[in-house]
Amino acid sequence: MKFSRYFSLVLFLVLCAAWTPVGASVGSKQSKPWRALHLLDYNSDSALDALGQNLENLAKQGINVIILEVDYNFAFKSHPELRRGTNPITRDGARRFAALCRKLNIRLIPEFQSLGHQSWKAETFPLLSVYPAFDLTPGAFPNNEGLYCREWDPLNPEVWRIVFQLMDEIIDAFRAGAFHVGMDEIFLLGSELSPSTKGKDSGVLFAKSVNEIYAHLVRQRHVEMVMWGDRLIDGKKYDFGEWEASTNGTAAAIDLIPKDIIVCPWHYEPRGDYPSIPMLIDKGFRVLPAGWKDLEATKALIEFTRLHADPKLLGYMFTTWGVKKDALVDFPPLVEGLKLLRDERRPLP
User: Fold this and answer.
1) Could you give the angle at which helices 332-342 and 295-307 cross, rounded to 10 degrees?
2) How far apart are CA 157 and CA 257, in angstroms?
3) One-letter-per-residue 3-state SS of 103-159
4) Domain 2-342 is of which CATH architecture?
């Protein structure tokens, strides 16, 4: 009986992976190559207004996509108990910032970290602090010691009911046509410390989580879905380690999820080869590679994308973890990377 249920779940996931919505395109809704900038810690209306002062400069440099990590830093009406901070982003503040982005032809994509990244250091974020029963490993890791980040329980349907309400509010406030769902650095699925998933296949569990979100965002809300790519890369096959790739079985989900998801593999170290990019393209995904603070790594990743130009390779994303706000427009990988991408003597991805 257990095998029968497992086989039925896998069959369902395979059908989900093969399903493509009517009218869906393997191309992008944005015709120009993406020059994307990932931002976080802009957690209030005033912070967004200050960021707005830099938008014209960023647009002139070539940025045409901003991925803004919002998470719980929003004045939710459906669940005010899940607001983080005393002065979170309001609907009016989001609308104001979104309007400025549109004026400057910058596509704005809000992000809500899903499944993982539900804590950082000693702080547990609102969903699991307000609803501890939603924790994937309840009672484990007191004070978050010995833990990277907490994760929510994807087998608890009440989690999805609440999370989708939060996502809906963010989508509506920013009038978003695409939504980034995070999904990176998942380590606890199938853990011995997880009562609901102990001993279960982490690849199937991860695929089920992706497909739950996809069904809501793409099928119901008709927005594009964007996610990080590290959990879909087999770390036992590709030498990226356990962070940029998965060594705990989640990579098997790659064949169990829809192919019109935009996948963002992040690689922060200089390498001569980034096989994850052609692998994801060959699987049928649109791909947006991401780099970080190492200038030589940024150059190497951009050069690699030039050598593997493909209609499904959307462009390039700059991430800014730890970059001070007043140093953003002068962030060396951003400045030099955009120069390299503007070099008209070479083909662009």
Assistant:
1) 20
2) 19
3) HCCCEEEEEEEECCCCEECCEECHHHHHCHHHECCCCCCHHHCCCCCCCECCCCHHH
4) Alpha-Beta Barrel (3.20)
Q: Which of 153, 17, 61, 106 is nearest to 340 (CA)?
A: 61
Q: Within 13 Å and on the Cβ side, how many CA atoms surround 326? A: 0
In whole angstroms, how far apart are CA 197 and each of 185, 204, 235, 248?
17, 11, 22, 13
Cβ–Cβ under 8 Å, residues 193 and 230: no
Query: What is the spatial distance between Cα 249 and Cα 233, in angstroms, rounded to a whole number?
Result: 10
CB of 287 within 8 A of CB of 265?
yes
Sheet holding 286-287, edge to edge: 286-287, 262-264, 224-228, 178-182, 107-114, 65-69, 34-39, 315-319, 290-291
Instruction: Give residue 346's pLDDT.
Output: 54
In terms of C-beta density within 10 A (0-12 exposed, 13-18 middle, 19 or more buried), how is residue 265 classed? buried
**Exposed, middle or buried, 268 (CB in 10 Å: 0-12/13-18/19+)?**
middle
- Mean residue pLDDT of the chain comes to 92
Q: Which tokens go with 166?
A: 């939060």
Round to the nearest angstrom and report the end-to-end CA distance of the chain. 49
Which of helix, strand or coil describes residue 312?
A: coil
Q: Give the whole-angstrom CA distance, residue 194 versus residue 180.
A: 26
- Taken in order 301, 279, 241, 213, the sign of the CA dihedral is positive
Task: Annotate 282-300 with three-state secondary structure.
Answer: HCCCEECCEECCCHHHHHH
Residue of 231, 224, 264, 266 whose CA lies nearest to 249: 231
User: What are the residue boundaries of the structural domains of the chain, listed by start?
Assistant: 2-342
Q: What are phi and psi of 119, to 5 degrees?
A: -160, 165
Q: How far is the C-alpha of 35 from the C-alpha of 341, rounded, in Å?
A: 9
> What percentage of residues in the chain have a pLDDT greater than 70?
90
Residue-wise pLDDT for 169-216, tens only, equals 999 999 999 999 999 999 999 999 999 999 999 999 999 999 999 999
Distance CA 179, CA 92 (A): 19
pLDDT on residue 27: 42
